[in-house]
Design goal:
Number of strands of chain A: 9
Shape of chain A: globular
Order of helices and strands of chain A: HHEHEEEHEEEEE
Largest interface: A-B, 61 and 41 residues
Number of helices of chain B: 1
Order of helices and strands of chain B: EEH
Helix content of chain A: 25-40%
Helix content of chain B: 40-55%
Oligomer: heterodimer
Distance between the termini of chain A: 26 Å
Strand content of chain A: 25-35%
Structural class of chain A: alpha+beta
Structural class of chain B: alpha+beta
Strand content of chain B: 5-15%
Radius of gyration of chain A: 18 Å
């Protein structure tokens, strides 16, 4: 990741540049937000804070106008433990019939990226025999602070440090494979 | 971003802990709505493929 924060071509341009910068170097940005000690004592920290300031401002100024169903996956190496922690069944009865869950909170210190297309998530969840494939699903609320990041892939960016709460589970067939879907709701932001 | 973990949470990405509250009626109602829509959406994806 380059050490310079995005340039500022004019009013509003800093936020746009910050979003473009995230599109290009998002994985690096997420890595630092999740592990701030990796950069905290380096001279690039000031530029990084500036970048985050403008990304946060861009998200704060954004807003959804309607309800959209969004998906994100749980890594295949974590999926079984994740379901165990939630006390959620891998197979939750008939498709679409939900299972109630004891609520758990999920918080990512990084930004929260979702997609409207569950098949995009499935691409990142390899089929491993005997291992569950797990996604979370969130039905956005009008007025949510969120930005479309990649319209072709249906990607939507939510603010960092958002806390989500698990509210239920179901199973569904997707692209010929069974997926456990955990419903989540926004529970706050740090 | 080119990582294969763009749209997934790994264990080290998140903090998971028990909520200090129970779900209210609005959350329960939205959970049913979300799961029904998600299952329907997934089902349509299967058909479309």
């Amino acid at each position: 990741m380059p050490t310079d924060a995005p340039a500022s071509p004019g009013p509003g341009g800093k936020e746009k540049n910050a979003i473009d910068f995230f599109r290009e170097y998002g994985e690096d940005i997420q890595q630092v937000l999740r592990n701030p000690d990796s950069l905290a004592d380096r001279e690039e920290w000031g530029s990084f804070e500036t970048l985050i300031f403008h990304l946060d401002r861009a998200l704060e100024a954004s807003g959804f106008s309607s309800e959209v169903l969004l998906f994100r996956g749980i890594h295949h190496e974590y999926a079984r433990n994740f379901l165990f922690m939630l006390d959620a069944d891998e197979k939750t009865g008939e498709e679409g019939s939900g299972q109630s869950l004891v609520p758990y909170l999920i918080r990512d210190p990084g930004y929260n990226l979702f997609t409207t297309n569950p098949s995009e998530v499935l691409r990142e969840l390899p089929a491993v025999t005997g291992e569950p494939r797990v996604m979370v699903a969130y039905l956005s609320r009008p007025g949510d602070h969120a930005l479309p990041l990649d319209e072709k892939a249906g990607e939507v960016l939510y603010p960092r440090n958002t806390t989500w709460v698990t509210t239920g589970a179901t199973s569904a067939g997707l692209d010929g494979t069974e997926v456990t879907i955990i419903a989540i709701e926004m529970a706050g932001r740090k | 971003m080119t990582s294969n973990n763009r749209l997934v949470w790994r264990r080290q990405d998140i903090v998971l802990r028990r909520a200090p509250f129970v779900l209210d009626d609005d959350m329960k109602q939205r959970a049913g709505q979300t799961l029904s829509m998600a299952a329907g959406r997934a089902g349509r994806s299967t058909v479309r493929e």
